[in-house]
Amino acid sequence: MSKNNLSDEELVSRCQRELPDSTQSFEVLVQRYKPRIYLLVYRLVRNVEEAEDVTQEVFIKLYYHLHSLDQQGAFTGWMYRVAMNAALDALERCKRHPHPETEGESVNALDQQAASIPEPDEQVISAELRSCIQHVLSQLKREQARALILRDVEGLEYKEVARLLGTSLSAAKMRVHRARLAFQRLFMQQPCGRIYFELYVEQEQEKRNSYEL
């Protein structure tokens, strides 16, 4: 059977037996998950070079610690936790040394989650706003940030969020709910959050005035 057709559990088991003498099975694992991990990281750090570096860092960590994984079926959840922690660490670094953002990137769910109000004009969603969102995300507790990333960045169903976090479905829903509240509260404490809210109020007032004419 081709290694590409093996399940994650079978592939991980082979990696644990073969590493470090052979990396063939691990290379298949990297090919299987690297695009997904890169996309997750890039959606957070918004910089191609940083995302590539962090993705490489994730798989280096997997390489050196894969032997310690002993719970059957736990690989994907463990890998996502490693990736999210690495991405959040990168956000901390980006706060100190900001990277220019790639132009034309689409807005993800956290842009709409940035305040408990409807999204204002699309032009308001600027690089500065995304930078503010990244800053707030990096201020959350790690367990809250991971829940929010899986649900609102990756767009996963709650059942999958619960599986990757290793919690019950109800606990995953509660964690996401609390993370959203914490995100909104922190966002509104930032200057950009207050500006965002003021712009929204101004636009709504203009709409009401136009209706009255």
TrEMBL record:
InterPro entries on file: RNA_pol_sigma-70-like, RNA_pol_sigma-70_dom, RNA_pol_sigma70_r2, RNA_pol_sigma70_r4_t2, RNA_pol_sigma_r2, RNA_pol_sigma_r3/r4-like, WH-like_DNA-bd_sf
Alphabetical keyword list: DNA-binding, Sigma factor, Transcription, Transcription regulation
Domain (RNA polymerase sigma factor 70 region 4 type) ranges: 131-181
Any Pfam family the entry gives: Sigma70_r4_2
All residue ranges annotated as the RNA polymerase sigma-70 region domain in the record: 29-95
One Gene Ontology term from the biological process aspect of the record: DNA-templated transcription initiation
GO terms assigned for molecular function: DNA binding; sigma factor activity
PANTHER family referenced in this protein's UniProt entry, alphabetically: RNA POLYMERASE ECF-TYPE SIGMA FACTO (PTHR43133), RNA POLYMERASE SIGMA FACTOR HI_1459-RELATED (PTHR43133:SF8)
Family of the protein in this entry: Belongs to the sigma-70 factor family. ECF subfamily.
Protein name: RNA polymerase sigma factor
Biological source species: Thermosporothrix sp. COM3
